[in-house]
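Protocol step 4 of 5: obtain the predicted structure for the target chain.
Materials: sequence only (see below). No template structures provided, no constraints applied. The aim of this step is simply to have a reference model before the mutagenesis design in step 5. Sequence pasted as it appears in the construct record:
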Amino acid sequence: MLFPNMMKGLLTIFVVGILAGPVSVKAQSVADVVTNAFFNGIIDQSDPSCAGRSFYTRSAFLEATNSYPQFGTVDNIRQEVAAFFAHVTHETGHFCYIEEIAGPTYPNSQYCDPSYTQYPCNPDKSYYGRGPLQLSWNYNYGPAGQNIGFDGLNSPETVANDPVISFKAALWFWVNNVLPVLSQGFGATIRAINSIECNGGNTAAVQSRVGYYTDYCNQLGVDPGPNLSC
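Step 4 output (structure tokens):
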């Protein structure tokens, strides 16, 4: 038998519960998902002689994410982390390479598009791939530098010299070019990063990216979702 005061207390709890809705579970942060074990599991697969092993660090990545709070705010943070690091792994060879392998041998005009007059190329500089997502072209270095706070057109090498800026450059590209299509599936992110690989352009590269993505999804305990290829 319930006494009047007990009934009143139970009713209050019930009403408050209805008003408050279901109890929320604390959302995971990027740092919760990108653990030391996860990050080191990638970089440890590169050769000990790789320059990137002493350049790319989890702490530099996490510091860079502070400037891009959009990263890791989608409905499934683990899926986004898996996608981001799948592309990073492919682009850098498990964090081995800081710069595009053949980049320094190219003429400075290789990655200069003069039609982007708002981002004029410095004839003494080259805009080949650098950093976790191998930022390329004057039309990326220019606005990335403006957003991050370095001279991307006159000092593009900064992306290869400062690990925090290097990750910031990758995150700048991600939130502006990849994040908007993330909901369409991993295949759309491949197209956003390197569209020439799609539609048979480089099947091996696409399969490499998809392989890393599904592997990281498995590690993080998340379904990779549909539309994996492009």
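Step 4 remarks: The CA atoms of residues 174 and 180 lie 9 Å apart. The longest helix spans residues 203-220.
Proceed to step 5.
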